[in-house]
């Protein structure tokens, strides 16, 4: 499967993506990893209604016009369905869905606790190895999940719009710290200049680019700003955090909620001691 | 060593406590665990200057007057010294330091990240197995560490004083949720009634006991309230959290900061893949 993916076989890639979503792709990803590090991995996040999808469409069009390939991962942490109806509609609406050099994959939570950020990161690893020039991770919705997902991208774009009020500003607080580039979309609206001034005043050390994505305005500038940011996925800091996170995820996978419950019960009733019990769980890694 | 501890040998107990602090007591604690569950484990926390130490002294005196034994663990998360000068003074100041049926141990951070709450919990396991009727965990200072430490006690007493102002009230916010019993110490001061009313109004479902610890007032009432609370260390919920925490702690111990750094560097430079690397680290548990 590894060779097919590297050779550009899209059906093999789709099968591999399914393995990634199921958390069963580690051996494959281990083999593919040396081929990664070439793609630009772009996280795009922001408030609902900010125009993220339109921006992604326009960026894709511009990158395709350069003769380069694009993979898009649309992530919806709030949806219980994998590739559910809403995301399906979203995919069909995209003007590039028929272009063989644009690969689109939607992902959603499966009711499992955590793990979505890690799965998304693994998906970008797969797409990077498959040779896409640019991998765009678009998150739908707002929350800690989005922050976690975006943090794993090489370059993070936070999309804002003028006049969203104080509530939304508060929601955005968590996103402010992770932004490498700010996009003020719908910049033809009232309040765009004020928002730009506020962002500059906050001294967040990230460029602020006004766009009107619907009309294709400012798209080239966003791409130029993004390409000017040193990608995080080549830094030691990025991998330090990622390795820690992978360790934690693997560990929690080894114990089911049912098993934890009966273990806790045995200890509470003093039928087991917690020390040897924890050792026993950890010894499962000796497979 | 196990038998000596159970037989009440204080020197063996002190040696075992040192092993616990060094994180090397798991086999011993596994053996001792079936003998635990009899001690009342009492966490005492609150703002600096609230009179926690005086309260602990007075509680100890009352419990000793009943003919029962007491172990006191004084924890200072902010101090870089184990059993440092300040805590040493604290111990010598206590009126019970010459009583063979009162065992006093001070603990402090060793500059290691996290782990103090877990070490404190292990220490209470040791003292419980050693046959003390009551184990008091007194935390010095205020912060997330104190919350974590207190949460692992069977019953948590939060000590407040009247007239500490809004700043302190905010600091206490994290402590409010973990309180099984509130003590309003220095209750002869102005504002005690108002504080009691505020606590009742907040509907925290925990009794509020006024004391003047310096004069021994209200001590019997505190003890009665504490003994009326079902102890957490016998519940499944308590052990579910504790087992998860023990798993995480053990995992993080297996990788040093230096090793994590060079691993992250190897991955960032694509000399290693993170998937097989994480598996390699986890396979160390197969000892």
Detailed description of the structure:
The structure is a homodimer of 287-residue chains. Chain A has 287 residues and is α/β, with parallel strands linked by helices. Chain A has two domains: 2-234, P-loop containing nucleotide triphosphate hydrolases (Rossmann fold, 3-Layer(aba) Sandwich); 254-285. The first copy, chain A, is 48% helix and 14% strand. Chain A has helices at residues 2-6, 10-21, 26-32, 52-65, 85-93, 116-129, 144-151, 165-176, 192-201, 219-227, 236-253, 257-268, 274-282; strands at residues 40-46, 70-76, 102-108, 134-139, 155-160, 181-184, 208-210. A seven-stranded parallel sheet of chain A has the order 3-2-4-1-5-6-7, sandwiched between helices. The longest helix of chain A is centred in the last third of the chain and has 18 residues, at 236-253. Chains A and B meet through helix 3, helix 11, helix 12 and helix 13 of A and helix 3, helix 11, helix 12 and helix 13 of B.
Question: Can you tag this structure with a few keywords?
Answer:
Rossmann fold, homodimer, 7-stranded parallel sheet, 287 residues, 48% helix
Binned strand content of chain A: 5-15%
Largest sheet of chain A: 7 strands, parallel
Oligomer: homodimer
Characterize the overall form of chain A: globular
What is the CATH topology descriptor of the largest domain in chain A?
A: Rossmann fold
Strand order of the largest sheet of chain A: 3-2-4-1-5-6-7
Mean pLDDT of chain A: 83
Number of strands of chain A: 7
Order of helices and strands of chain A: HHHEHEHEHEHEHEHEHHHH
The helix/strand class of chain A is: alpha/beta
Instruction: Indicate the low-confidence ranges of chain A by residue numbers.
Output: 80-89
The level 1 CATH classification of the largest domain in chain A is: Alpha Beta
């Amino acid at each position: 499967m590894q060779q097919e993916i590297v050779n550009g076989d899209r059906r093999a890639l789709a099968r591999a993506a399914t393995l990634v979503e199921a958390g069963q792709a580690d051996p494959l990803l281990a083999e593919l990893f040396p081929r990664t590090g070439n793609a630009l991995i772009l996280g795009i996040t922001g408030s609902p209604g900010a125009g993220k999808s339109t921006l992604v469409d326009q960026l894709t069009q511009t990158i395709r016009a350069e003769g380069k390939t694009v993979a898009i991962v649309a992530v919806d942490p709030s949806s219980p369905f994998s590739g559910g109806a809403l995301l399906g509609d979203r995919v069909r609406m995209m003007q590039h869905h028929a272009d063989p050099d644009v690969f689109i994959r939607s992902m959603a939570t499966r009711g499992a606790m955590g793990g979505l950020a890690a799965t998304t990161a693994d998906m970008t690893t797969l797409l990077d190895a498959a040779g896409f020039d640019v991998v765009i991770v678009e998150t739908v919705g707002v929350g800690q999940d989005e922050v976690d997902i975006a943090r794993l991208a090489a370059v993070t774009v936070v999309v804002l719009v003028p006049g969203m009020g104080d509530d939304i500003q508060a929601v955005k607080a968590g996103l402010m710290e992770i932004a490498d580039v700010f996009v003020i979309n719908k910049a033809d609206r009232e309040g765009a200049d004020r928002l730009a001034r506020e962002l500059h005043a906050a001294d967040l050390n990230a460029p602020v680019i006004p766009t009107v994505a619907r009309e294709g305005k400012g798209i080239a500038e966003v791409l130029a700003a993004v390409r000017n940011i040193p990608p995080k996925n080549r830094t030691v800091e990025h991998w330090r955090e990622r390795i820690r996170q992978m360790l934690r995820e693997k560990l929690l996978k080894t114990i089911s909620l049912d098993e934890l419950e009966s273990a806790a019960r045995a200890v509470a009733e003093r039928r087991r001691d917690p020390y040897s019990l924890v050792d026993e769980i950890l010894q499962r890694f000796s497979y």
